Amino acid sequence: MFHYFKIEGSQATARQAAELLRSVISQQRVPYTNQAGALIDAVRAVGEQLIAANPVELAVGNIVRRVLHIIREENLSLATAAIAGVEPISGK
Predict the structure, then answer these.
(1) pTM over the 0.85 mark
(2) Residue (of 52, 24, 51) closest to 39 by Cα position
(3) I want to staple 64 with a disulfide (CB 3.0 to 4.6 A). Which of 26, 47, 49, 69 is the partner?
């Protein structure tokens, strides 16, 4: 994905990777059940392609791991709220 144009610097590379992952997540059609699993699989697949395209740039892997962590954390908080029978507070 980074083959088509050259991105200079870790910050610019990380920003582009984050924007790409955001668009992948927003365009992802997830099933009602196991939404987090579907998102994790999609982010992991794109992340592997990004890392393979530029394995020297460590910022891409860091961004992918952060996004995966956020998805898992949000899934855990939603599951905890569902078990407790509480309506989750939206951060929006």
Answers:
(1) no
(2) 24
(3) 47
